Amino acid sequence: MTDLRKVLGNRIRSARLRLSLSQQQLAKEIGFSASQIVSQIEKGERDVKAWELVNLAKALHIDVSRLLDVEEPKPFAPVLWRKYPEADKELIEAEFLKRCEQYALLEKLCDVVIKEELPTREVNYEKLTYEYAEALGEEIRNHFGLGSRPASCLSSILEEKYGVKIWYENLDEGSAASTKGSFGAAILMNATEAPWRRNFNFAHELFHIITWPSFSTKSLHEDRELWNEVERRANAFASSLLLPSEELSEAFENRIKNDSVKYTDLIEVGREFGVSTEALLYRLLHLGVLQKDVVDSLLEDDDFRSLDKSFRLTDWWKPPEIPERFGRLAFVAYQKGKLSRARLAEYLNTSLIDLSNTLLEYGLDDSKNYQASVRASRR
Question: What's the pLDDT tens digit per position in 292-333?
Fold first, then answer.
């Protein structure tokens, strides 16, 4: 019993240090009267009550199972950020990874099998060229079958076909992050950014996921010059994937009248391909369709910026706090009796009292019987 208490205590301590929390901060978060209680728990000198364990796991942004697992839990997966958040980076990462582990558990409980794995590529970042990044973007677009307007279906294909765990977080800083672990691949997206910028970020993070075996997060971030070059290659990949050269050139040329293109037509092309006008202009520059002085002039033109903003207002949408697929899987697991009602409420980030209303927001009604079935024959 003493050994088990010490194992639990060590896991609690490791999780606390991972979040850079003091014993006093954790005690306050849990509602303990003194930091000495946390100290006693971490040393294995005190039993932990069930309710304390639940509150500890919640405060440490980990699942209770990670604290109680018979086997030593695997190390936490590294998280690769485009730009670090200015505050609470450790907390955001911890919650993100916990959610990813929950997502993978729900897939297991619902007997979901991801039959097609994401392709991976080994690259030498110090020798990685723009040409390779662009060619890879075109290859992946064709491999995924994204068609002529890739942004319209990229995130859904990543989620539904390849099992990529997609989460959204309201971030004051930091546009996106990605990771790969025992749960698979995952992307954390800034929910406050414009949808067309999120589209580009999905493609950008996909580059990192595909080339994940090639880098060490620590070593890359220590070499800022190299890291900035890698980010530029990721942008080249994203631009090539989302803006196919032939289709984009055709859409642009169709709008040329008397050797010029109206501002509104340029903006409409960006909307059509689901990217920011800035990303569109740089892609057209790269394809030789627009000259650099024209692109620079447009990006500095306040009238063009204002027109672009006004034309985009109807395209704005904010993603739900809980991904639709995650909520659906959680409900199915609950209906199958593999997830308790209390656990379902926890996964959907709501209370037991509000659970039914929360489910209705996702088009699910827990008062109905979803267990009806039909007879099927195996081929």
Answer: 999 999 999 999 999 999 988 888 888 988 999 999 999 999
Q: What is the pLDDT of residue 306?
A: 93
Which of 242, 258, 280 lies at the terminal end of a domain, its last residue? Answer: 242
Domain that holds residue 283: 245-315
Can you state the angle between helices 224-242 and 195-210, rounded to 10 degrees?
Answer: 110
In this prediction, the residues of the chain whose per-residue pLDDT falls under 50 are none
**Rounded to an integer, what distance in angstroms lies between the CA atom of residue 194 and that of residue 276?**
9
pLDDT score for 88: 86
144: tokens are: 């995924």
Pick left, alpha or beta for residue 307 (phi over 0 → left; psi -120 to 50 → alpha; otherwise beta).
alpha
- Classify residue 87: in a domain, yes or no: no
**Whether residues 121 and 15 fall in one domain:** no
Strand ranges (DSSP E) for the chain? 80-81, 165-169, 176-181, 184-190
